[in-house]
């Protein structure tokens, strides 16, 4: 199988929550042997781990649920019943966090390194990690 696919955009939402469907997309692509190789080292780590911590859910349990449930809304509901109950304010806080990550914070240096290694260091409009994903994965140019 070819490992050349990127997951869906981090801006994609499930019940208003950004990044959640991307994490599930990575799980499904990895299991099918289709996840772009450079994603394999960080799957379940980085933002995946931060989201699972925020949701109070174990990544391995989420992975197992994702592989047996094809509807992201159902998985979100499962998280609400097995981890943290996610309310409107929680979604607002997470979405703000994830859309600003890399902008003048503890991840800024990592973002600069990724931009450099991807040949995007001259792209000043890329100020956050999820904006970087959009360019690195070809959704923006």
What's the structural blueprint in terms of helices and strands?
Elements: E1 13-14, E2 17-18, H1 20-31, H2 46-55, H3 59-68, H4 72-82, H5 88-100, H6 108-117, H7 129-136
Antiparallel strand pairs: 1-2
Overall description:
- The chain is mainly alpha-helical.
- The chain folds into two domains: 7-85, no CATH class; 101-141, no CATH class.
- 52% of the residues lie in helices and 3% in strands.
- The chain is built from seven helices and two strands, in the order ββααααααα.
- The protein has helices at 20-31, 46-55, 59-68, 72-82, 88-100, 108-117, 129-136, and strands spanning 13-14, 17-18.
- A two-stranded antiparallel ribbon has the order 1-2.
- The chain is globular, with a radius of gyration of 15 Å.
- The two termini are 27 Å apart.
- The model has no long low-confidence stretch (mean pLDDT 95).
């Amino acid at each position: 199988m070819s490992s050349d696919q990127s997951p869906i955009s981090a801006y994609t939402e499930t019940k208003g929550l950004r990044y959640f469907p991307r994490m599930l997309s990575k799980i499904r692509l990895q299991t099918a042997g289709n996840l772009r190789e450079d994603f394999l080292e960080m799957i379940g780590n980085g933002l995946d781990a931060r989201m699972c911590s925020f949701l109070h859910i174990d990544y391995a349990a989420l992975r197992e649920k994702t592989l047996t449930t094809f509807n992201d809304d159902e998985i979100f509901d499962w998280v609400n019943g097995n981890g943290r109950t996610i309310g409107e304010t929680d979604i607002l806080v997470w979405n703000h966090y994830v859309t600003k990550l890399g902008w003048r914070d503890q991840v800024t240096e990592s973002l600069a390194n990724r931009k450099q290694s991807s040949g995007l260091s001259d792209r000043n409009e890329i100020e956050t990690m999820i904006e970087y994903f959009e360019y690195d994965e070809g959704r923006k140019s």
